[in-house]
Amino acid sequence: MQNQLNMNMGNVIDPKHIDKEFIDLFNKPGPYYSSYPILAEWNKKSDNFDHEKTLIDYFKKNPDNPIYLYLHIPYCAKLCYYCSCRIHISNNRNVINNFVQLLVKETNMLESFFKKNNIKPNIKEIHLGGGTPSHLTVDELSLIIGEIKKFTNIEDLDEFSMEIDPRTVNVEHFDHYASFGVDRISFGVQDFDPEVQKKINRVQPYDLIESLMVNNIRKQFKGVNFDLLYGLPGQTLETFRNTIKLTNQLAPERITLIKYAHIPEKRKHMKMIQPSDFPPESDIPLMFVESTKTLTNSGYEWVGIDHFAKKTDELAIAKKNGTVYRNFGGETSGNTKDIICLGPTSTFSFGKYYAQSTYDLHEYRDSVEKGKFPISKNYELNNNDIIRRDCNFSLQCNQVLDIKKIQEDYNIDFYSYFAKEIDKIKKYELAGFLKLEDNKILVTTLGRYFVRHICQIFDTFIDDELEYKVHGN
Q: What is the rounded distance in angstroms from the CA atom of residue 284 to the CA atom of residue 282?
């Protein structure tokens, strides 16, 4: 397989060379490694876990580290059948405003914590996610951002991004968002085909998105992102080619191209999707392979696992510089690696600590009203976890693992420390996924399509290997 697939295609492979072996490997389940260890391995919060103490410990050791602040808004106006996020559907403005007041109170708690412990957080990025942040009124958003300003210099941010449901906004909203300091926006597009939109209960015509991509809106922001999903009900290779074509016409600065995960046992609303409507499994890898070829031919850089960025965008520049990083929102330019959060279900990652706020809104309300941060899960990484996370993220984000740097950073002999893993690396090298040379592990063109599986080499929680055949060796 690898001899054909690595031929003359530069950073992507030619869809005409895709075979059954490639399809089976691509469709094999595996983590996307937004963290290591993955969230499923974190512990339910124990009584002796002290979230404030872990924050104090982190800031004491890293007072100047740039921080990424994430706020989770769980409310949406309408249920999308494909959605895997923890969300709540409501158009009751009283209910939503009550949540906003809770979020403001939690924000005040964080501000008080910083003051009490003489901490001046170096917040450099903010992301408003959900749910649907644009489902809040302008006044509600203004109230939240006003509280954030008490411990954040908005004007000194590297980036302030916001997720937007195109069905919840008009042109005037963007003037307000820009006035708040938002400088990057993300549209949940998913697919442009009208029949697919009906099947996922997210009808938003192409004309609607086009009307929001006009110059008087775009000039207020340094970039626009489109979220696209492949593998949705009703999609065909032809319809998804057209979605990519229309995306190219609108030319967002970034594109996130994610495989749909059907998990009705965890998200009951996904049962609204008819299994008979799914595209054949053999088409799923082709959708991604064709899209990578089309987008890279159109001037986008393929970044990390599933992101694409125009060559002038910070994310593409980070790829060129080898500084791409990954957090719970996907690939980033690597300016910030540590995350603190506000809102239910939000996920912290700072130093050697992970933590997650409660999913349950009642638990969230009870904790905040008692003046307690609503943490429900946590994990403290040991040194071995941190080393493996570094190896994992280096491969998936920048397609190279500098063995010498790992040795110097952690004072280990890589080849003895990872003796078991070296055997797997050599097997994957024979299969054409990796190259081991000059004290570096390089992901090949073929390996890029399986990099999240390759990262399992360094995962002590998963004992699995890719099944493959070695051709031509």
A: 6
SS3 of 410, please?
Answer: helix
Closest Cα partner for 188 from 116, 248, 137, 134? Answer: 134
Chain segment 229-247, per-residue pLDDT in tens? 999 999 999 999 999 999 9
Show the CA angle centred on residue 121, arms to residues 117 and 122, nearest 5°. Answer: 155
On whether both 56 and 203 belong to a single domain, the answer is yes
Task: Tell me: do 59 and 193 sit in the same domain.
Answer: yes
Which amino acid is present at 407? Answer: Q
Percent of the chain past pLDDT 90, that is, above it, reads 91
Same domain, yes or no: 413 and 266: no
In a domain, 463, yes or no: no
- Range of 54's domain? 39-380
Cα dihedral 294/296/298/301 (nearest 10): 140
Residue 409 belongs to domain with CATH number: 1.10.10.920
pLDDT single digits (tens) 91-132: 999 999 999 999 999 999 999 999 999 999 999 999 999 999
Pairwise CA distance, residues 186 & 88, whole Å: 20
Domain finish residue from 339, 361, 380: 380
**3-state class percentages of the chain: helix first, strand second, coil last, to nearest 5:** 45, 20, 35
Identify the pLDDT of residue 67. Answer: 98
pTM of the model: 0.94
- Of the candidates 327, 362, 380, which is a domain's last residue? 380
Residue pointed to by tokens 């059948």: 81
Average pLDDT, the chain: 94
Distance CA 196, CA 173 (A): 28
Q: Which parts of the chain register pLDDT below 70?
A: 1-10, 464-473
Do 113 and 238 fall within a single domain?
yes
Are 280 and 297 in the same domain? Answer: yes
If asked whether residues 402 and 355 sit together in one domain, one would say no
CA R_g for the chain: 22
Rounded-to-integer distance, Cα 68 and Cα 202, Å? 30
323/401 same-domain check = no
Domains in the chain, number: 2
Q: What whole-number distance in Å separates Cα of residue 118 and Cα of residue 127?
A: 24
Beta carbons of 319 and 296 less than 8 angstroms apart: no
d(CA 444, CA 429): 9
